[in-house]
Design brief:
By secondary structure, the protein is of the alpha/beta class. Helices cover about 25% and strands about 20% of the residues. It contains five helices and twelve strands. Helix 4 links the parallel strand 4 (about 115-120) and strand 5 (about 150). Helix 3 packs parallel to helix 4 (about 135-145). The protein is globular.
């Protein structure tokens, strides 16, 4: 092989090697997927059959990426004309004053349900070491102003569907039994819980039904045939998508719309569009 051929081959290999890096940094983190699926709910009122429930999770508004992507995603999501919208935590990245100001700009464009819109907090909403209660209160105030009802260890019924919201597992306010002690199995229920590790805690009081979570981002990077290398959960089964917990509970983990670090590989950002049945 002469020098010219060698340099040509070296250049070709460099381009091939660089493409996955550029793709995972500049393309996939902004290649939104709308995941459409059915959500069968026990005791669902007939008038809600066929209604749309949209789950949006883990915005991570901050300085790690261009959050105008979130605004553009919201505009696309509105085309589904959802009846219910739920936001399952991590609205900001650090819980700083700057994050809160940027969150206001993003939520001017928030997707709202025709019937109701609910939200819960995630660990990042509590700022440094997940202990800043003032940050979580500020975020709740911002979101309430834009039409999102926050469920902090609380429940609220809307048009025959009862939404139960947990505070985050890592927060000082985590106390799911505050609401689960009043769990009523005779009505249609759905639980919003940011961190799916809560599924392994003894806090469910016989609950049977769906749990909508986020937190994992699907690991953000996945190599086919290999376990997702980085997951911020103790139970490594909890990656993304639907998981049957084998006790009457069904878990769905959203892969996140935003990201705490701008890298994704074979784990596209997600907004989930459920059809209630």
């Amino acid at each position: 092989m002469n020098r010219k051929t060698f340099l040509k081959r070296l250049f070709q290999l460099s381009v091939i090697g660089a493409f996955p890096l550029l793709y995972s940094w500049k393309i996939e983190p902004f290649w939104l997927e709308f995941v459409e699926r059915k959500l069968p709910i026990k005791n669902l009122p007939e008038e809600l059959n066929g209604k749309i429930l949209m789950q949006i999770s883990d915005l991570h508004v901050g300085n790690r990426f261009d959050w105008n992507f979130l605004i553009d995603s919201f505009k696309k999501a509105k085309n589904f004309n959802p009846d219910f919208v739920v936001y399952t935590g991590d609205f900001v990245n650090h819980g700083s004053t700057e994050d809160h100001l940027h969150l206001e700009k993003v939520m001017h464009h928030a997707v709202l349900g025709k019937l109701a819109t609910f939200g819960i907090l995630g660990n990042h909403d509590y700022g440094a070491k997940w202990k800043n209660i003032k940050s979580s209160e500020n975020i709740c105030n911002i979101l309430e102003r834009f039409g999102i009802t926050m469920l902090n260890n609380a429940q609220q019924e809307s048009h025959g569907l009862n939404f139960i919201g947990f505070e985050d597992l890592s927060s000082p306010n985590f106390d799911p039994m505050k609401v689960m002690k009043d769990y009523d199995p005779s009505i249609a229920n759905i639980v919003l819980c940011h961190n799916p590790d809560v599924c392994d805690k003894n806090v469910w009081n016989g609950y049977e039904g769906w749990i909508l979570s986020g937190h994992t981002h699907g690991g953000q990077c996945r190599i086919p045939g290999i376990v997702t290398p980085i997951l911020p959960v103790k139970n490594k089964r909890y990656v993304s998508g639907e998981i049957d917990l084998k006790d009457g509970r069904m878990l769905y983990i959203n892969r996140a719309l935003g990201h705490s670090f701008q890298v994704r590989f074979m784990v596209r950002p997600e907004i989930t569009v459920f059809t209630l049945t």
